[in-house]
Design a protein that fits this description.
Strands 7, 8, 9, 10, 11 and 12 form a 6-stranded antiparallel sheet that branches. The chain has a 3-stranded antiparallel sheet with strand order 3-4-5, with no helix packed on it. By secondary structure, it is an alpha+beta fold. The protein has 7 helices and 14 strands.
């Protein structure tokens, strides 16, 4: 009953195979029903046609942040943890730094890369950015439920989010994350909370595949996706990003915002924002983002 069918899904992975060599991955595999049941213990055999499998990286979000901080330190940055921003320092009509709970930090240019909070941060300088926040929740199990990750279509009959939603079951460092939902979030990301209906929807989405899928999850993780407003149907909202030059756009010098985007393109976002800041500061140096890893090793 999958809305696309295995042939269409395999066509997608045939196109994706061209990118596997970029991450050391292998071409996809198509498995019949018996092979699929062997690979995924407990999967229901009723109506099972088969599956397609592919290599994909899993990201440890906290570790990724730490790796970025380590790279920044090695390149001469000063990192301040536990210093929440409370406003922008404005001097002679331009942004000249950031106000924090531990004191002001002066800067020739401030980059607003605050994710779901970009609109609030820009507002401190009198600028506005249209952002739609979408709430995503995951159920977190403190154990590994399956030997591989799974992507499954949520049955259209039970989902309020449209018939083409998928649910991921992702093993990660001894845990399993199941989700996400995709619902309108509150205007203030600090008010984002998950509700019991989301947990019920996630469990109801995976139970047609597993008659005994465990309901004893340990906690719920929820976050806000910052999606740039583009007008029109919410289903067509893009996960693309944009770099805003507030001097050219709003007459506010000294402030650059990078908004939207996804974790998968965060280095491209950083490159685009940094290139603009370098032009403003008169820095003429080649970008090295694509030439070395976060640990400083040359890209093979």
């Amino acid at each position: 009953w999958h809305c696309h069918g295995i042939e269409t899904v395999e066509t997608l992975l045939e196109a994706y195979d061209a990118f596997q060599k970029m991450k050391g991955g292998r071409p996809h595999l198509r498995l019949d029903a018996a092979e699929t049941l062997k690979a995924v213990p407990g999967l229901s055999a009723e109506g099972l046609v088969g599956s397609v499998a592919f290599d994909e990286w899993v990201t440890e979000a906290v570790g990724l942040v730490e790796a970025n901080l380590g790279s920044a330190l090695r390149h001469g940055a000063e990192v301040r943890c536990g210093a929440p921003a409370t406003g922008l320092l404005v001097s002679e009509g331009r942004v000249a730094g950031v106000l924090t709970e531990s004191g002001p930090i002066g800067a020739r240019v401030v980059i607003n890369a605050s994710g779901p909070w970009v609109a609030r941060t820009a507002k401190w300088a009198g600028a506005s950015i249209g952002v739609t926040l979408r709430k995503g929740s995951h159920l977190v199990y403190d154990r590994r439920l399956f030997p591989i990750g799974l992507i499954m279509q949520a049955p259209a009959a039970i989902t309020p989010q449209g018939g083409d939603r998928v649910v991921f079951v992702i093993p990660l460092a001894g845990r399993t994350h199941v989700g996400p939902t995709d619902l309108p979030g509150p205007p203030d990301p600090d008010d984002t909370v998950s509700d019991p209906d989301e947990a019920s929807w996630i469990l109801d989405s995976v139970r047609p595949y597993f008659a005994k899928f465990p309901a004893d999850y340990h906690r719920v993780m929820v976050g806000s996706r910052p999606i740039l407003d583009a007008g029109g149907d919410e289903k067509l909202l893009s996960r693309g990003f944009e770099v805003f030059d507030h001097e050219a756009r709003d007459g506010v010098a000294g402030l650059v915002t990078v908004g939207g985007g996804k974790m998968s393109d965060f280095r491209l976002m950083a490159e685009a924002a940094t290139d603009l800041v370098c032009r403003k500061l008169g820095v003429d140096a080649p970008c090295r983002t694509h030439l070395e890893t976060l640990s400083g090793q040359p890209v093979a």
